[in-house]
Write a structure and sequence with these properties.
about 425 residues; alpha/beta; FAD/NAD(P)-binding domain; D-Amino Acid Oxidase, Chain A, domain 2; 2 domains; six-stranded mixed beta sheet; about 25% strand; globular; binds flavin-adenine dinucleotide
């Protein structure tokens, strides 16, 4: 089963949808059936818009159905965003906006799961584990900010012994336990959200790769076997699309991230290594992340290949890190290994913008997109409906474009990652 994702193999909803054939019309066409696209569609349908979603493979096929399933408050590019917004709206409003971007996604997900009765193995509890003793300072700051903002009850700083009570591992110098963060089966979540969107009237076509967007007062979205004419297009193809290249080429770089899942562990063993069923990641730039699944597998990810190409030996690369983390799992059977592409933005701030007045795009959460995509979807739906304030905060952020194109940018990212990996190996 190596190379099939654990999520695809365990998905609750496996129904397929039709391919787009012929001419259709709607208010909005959304390209891409991941968290971003599906939630934009759902949000717009809840506001009364008629929406068609076009997905080249099946719902959740991209990063959404391949990720670590950790719903955390980490917002990539937060410092750059806050600095930019401080100039735009003042320090206090900027700090509030960024704080909301960190945490509001959790509420949206919980609300959708409850409102639409989505079964997706949602569990609360996360540990941000300090790789080096010096990393505790950063975790102290997060705890202090949570305290100031009334979320102090949700977080607890753990020292080395505290971490070793929470996890059977020789690693880490301490950590921040966060009960607001969650983990879940992301493919089940997005497919539940897609059903919710359909219940609100959204039409979803799978196996429908968009080949081009004809811009104009009523843009037309084309596939090999059909066309959709709309008022507005929203491009939500993540790191997998090459559309609107004239505006977007050389701005987003796909990074291939690997994941694997062990065979189910005996319940007693799963409880022994992770008694509180926490999702965990560490404080390194190139980090390890892991958690237990509902059927007691360890789902483990880490590293990143910034060449954009999937590794040919994911298990060979990840197994040493898994065994270093949980020595009792030495030699454990690995049943699944897969990779997915995350969209990396050089300044790390999510890219929200337009390639024409009625062609929007949202992409690039730099590997931290489950909560963020849910907030971004709301911002995009709001913008399509004509309320531009939050969208403009992002749209006004300059994003570098690599004039040499994606390949040269990819090379620079690969070099950058090698630098960080070397620093971390040397402990500096
Ligand atoms: C291995 C891995 C682990 C991760 N772990 C975490 C984690 O634990 N926590 C977290 O918060 N984030 C994580 N992320 C990031 C997170 O998964 C993404 O940020 C998020 O899923 C992005 O959603 P999206 O809808 O924007 O893009 P995607 O999920 O990639 O969806 C884009 C969709 O668009 C479709 N598409 C592309 N081009 C076209 C076209 N021309 N026509 C039609 N359809 C098209 C694709 O097929 C795809 O389904 C991880 C990412 C990876 C790859």
């Amino acid at each position: 089963m190596i190379n099939e994702t654990y999520y695809a193999a365990s998905a609750r909803d496996r129904d397929e949808r039709d391919t787009l054939r012929g001419d259709y019309g709607a208010d909005v066409a959304v390209i891409g059936g991941g968290f971003t696209g599906v939630n934009i569609a759902l949000d717009l349908a809840e506001r009364g818009y008629s929406v068609i979603v076009l997905e080249q493979h099946c719902i959740g096929w991209g990063a959404t159905g391949r990720n670590g399933g950790q719903v955390t408050g980490s917002l990539s590019g937060d410092r750059t965003l806050q600095k930019h917004l401080t100039r735009r709206i003042g320090a206090e409003a900027a700090a509030d906006f960024v704080w909301d971007m960190r945490w509001h996604g959790h509420d949206i997900i919980r609300d959708r799961v409850a409102r639409y009765a989505i079964e997706c193995d949602l569990v609360s509890g996360h540990l941000h584990a300090a790789w080096r003793a010096s990393d505790m300072a950063e975790l102290h700051d997060v705890a202090a900010e949570a305290d100031r903002r009334g979320l102090g009850d949700s977080v607890t700083l753990l020292d080395r012994d505290g971490v070793h009570e929470a996890l059977e591992t020789p690693l880490y110098h301490g950590g921040l336990l966060n009960r607001r963060n969650m983990h879940l089966h992301p493919l089940d979540l997005v497919r539940g959200e897609a059903r919710a969107a359909e219940s609100q009237g959204v039409r979803i076509f799978e196996g429908s790769a968009v080949t081009g967007i004809v811009q104009g007062p009523r843009p037309v979205v084309e596939t090999a076997s059909g066309r959709v004419t709309v008022e507005t297009v929203v491009l939500a193809g993540g790191a997998y699309h090459r559309l609107e290249a004239r505006s977007l080429a050389g701005r987003l770089f796909p990074a291939a991230l690997g994941n694997m899942a062990t065979a189910p562990l005996p319940a007693a063993e799963a409880r022994a290594i992770n008694p509180q069923n926490l999702a965990v990641y560490d404080t390194r730039f190139v980090l390890d992340y892991y958690r237990l699944t509902a059927d007691n597998r360890v789902l483990f990810g880490g590293g990143a290949n910034y060449s954009g190409k999937a590794s040919e030996d994911i298990v060979g690369e990840l197994r040493p890190a898994l065994e270093r983390t949980f020595p009792r799992l030495r030699g454990v059977e690995i049943e699944f290994a897969w990779s997915g592409q995350a969209g990396i933005v050089p300044n790390r701030v999510p890219m929200l913008g337009r390639t024409a007045p009625n062609v929007f795009y949202a992409q690039g959460y730099s590997g931290h997109g489950i909560a963020t995509s849910h907030i971004v979807a709301g911002i995009m739906a709001e913008a399509v409906a004509g309320t531009m304030d939050r969208f403009d905060h992002f749209d006004s952020i300059p994003h570098a474009r690599n004039p040499l194109g994606e390949r040269a940018g990819q090379g620079m990212l690969t070099l950058g990652m090698a630098y960080y990996k070397l620093r971390e190996a040397l402990g500096v």
